[in-house]
Design a protein that fits this description.
The chain is α+β, with helices and mostly antiparallel strands and 348 residues long. The chain has two domains: 156 residues, 2-Layer Sandwich (Nucleotidyltransferase, domain 5), CATH 3.30.420; 134 residues, ATPase, nucleotide binding domain (Nucleotidyltransferase, domain 5, 2-Layer Sandwich), CATH 3.30.420.40. Helix content is 34%, strand content 29%. The protein is built from ten helices and 17 strands. It has a ten-stranded mixed sheet with strand order 3-2-1-8-10-9-5-6-4-7, with helices on both faces. It has a five-stranded mixed sheet with strand order 13-12-11-16-17, sandwiched between helices. The radius of gyration is 21 Å and the shape is globular. The protein starts with a strand and ends in a 10-residue tail after the last helix.
């Protein structure tokens, strides 16, 4: 039986789950190198080392934090066309490799795309992934293993629908939350590069109330990065700001910089732009029952966004990292989709 996996390949992070475990890593990859020295400098850090390395199409890649730490030529983009063409396959297969129990295994996967890119790229994305892939994984000790990873079916859905499915369905993929099946809910999904706005009207997708804007959390990161460049002359890559913004400070060449004030101002401006978009897009949807803020960017922007939105805010459950609600919803939707009995099944 094929294993059902939800995968959320975001510009900032790639997330995947089989319902029991989650895989989360930065959406970065780079060329793999041969280590001259493989031992951890301190034994207690060994468990923290996430060595994600795959060989695909005769090329060896470091993926995620390993690429950030070790690769000289790192690939990271906010361009959707380039992301689909060069990054998506590597990131998706790297994530799936972590769910391989046997050397040969088949999967059915649910993936998401921003609403604004859904129509253009859904067929390309599905066709790219729906096939058998031969990859080689290498662990931190240098041990290599060849895997035959089959993807028998791919369903591509608009990204923010994942958060709706997460609330609407239980872990088995069955309808559980009556509110989301009977009400009109607006969803603002703040990602790294984009923000998606959509409406679930009695669990039906509303095309008219859906849009993608370029107001992702990276816009605030760019403001902070530009401020740092003005202050110290160093161009800090956006993906290297996650921890610094979370802690409120960064060290550059040994000097500390307090990021709290500029972060607050950048988030306030971004939240104002997103709220303005939402209020404009949904100006005719005065019968909306509530609004949900989701996505990794939604976690940090929610306090700034909520006072600016016209409507009642549905709080996101705090049982999970905000980044993971979409991907858990994908998995539930997949279980709902593939658990249905086959129509016109021949009689035995």
């Amino acid at each position: 039986m094929d294993t059902i996996i939800g995968i959320d390949i975001g510009f900032g992070f790639t997330k995947a789950t089989n319902g029991e475990n989650f895989q989360v890593f930065k959406s970065i990859y780079g060329e793999a190198i041969d280590f001259q020295f493989k031992e951890s400098l301190l034994n207690q850090n060994e468990q923290l080392d996430e060595h994600l390395q795959i060989d695909l199409d005769d090329t060896s890649y470091f993926v995620g934090e390993l690429a950030e730490r070790q690769s000289s030529n790192r690939q990271f983009t906010l361009d959707q066309t380039q992301f689909i063409a060069t990054s998506t396959k590597i990131l998706a297969l790297a994530a799936l490799s972590r769910f391989m129990i046997h050397d040969r295994q088949s999967f059915k996967i649910i993936v998401g795309l921003p609403i604004g890119h859904y129509r253009q790229y859904k067929s390309e994305l599905a066709g790219m992934l729906r096939r058998s892939h031969t990859i080689v994984t290498t662990n931190s000790q240098g041990q290599r293993k060849e895997l035959l990873l089959g993807i028998s079916d791919v369903r591509v859905i608009p990204q923010p629908i994942g958060s709706v499915m997460d609330r609407l369905l239980d872990d088995e993929g069955k309808a559980a939350e009556k509110r989301f099946a009977s009400e009109k809910i607006g969803i603002i999904d703040v990602g790294f590069s984009t923000s998606d706005y959509t409406i679930s009207d009695k669990a039906r997708y509303s095309e008219r109330g859906s849009l993608t804007s370029q107001n992702g959390i990276s816009k605030a990161f760019e403001v902070i990065a530009n401020k740092l460049k003005d202050s110290c002359g160093v161009n800090v890559e956006l993906y290297r700001l996650f921890d610094a913004i979370e802690t409120g400070s960064i060290k550059i060449r040994g000097k500390g910089f307090d990021l709290r004030k500029i972060t607050q101002l950048a988030f306030q401006q971004l939240a104002a732009n997103i709220a303005s978009d939402a209020n404009r897009i949904w100006s005719d949807d005065w019968d909306m029952d509530a609004i949900m803020i989701t996505g990794g960017g939604g976690a940090v922007l929610a306090p700034y966004l909520q006072p600016l939105l016209e409507g009642v805010i549905v709080p996101i459950e705090q049982d999970l990292d905000y980044r993971l609600h979409n991907v858990r919803g994908y998995l539930k939707y997949g279980r709902n989709t593939w658990a249905k009995p086959m129509l016109n099944k021949p009689k035995e």
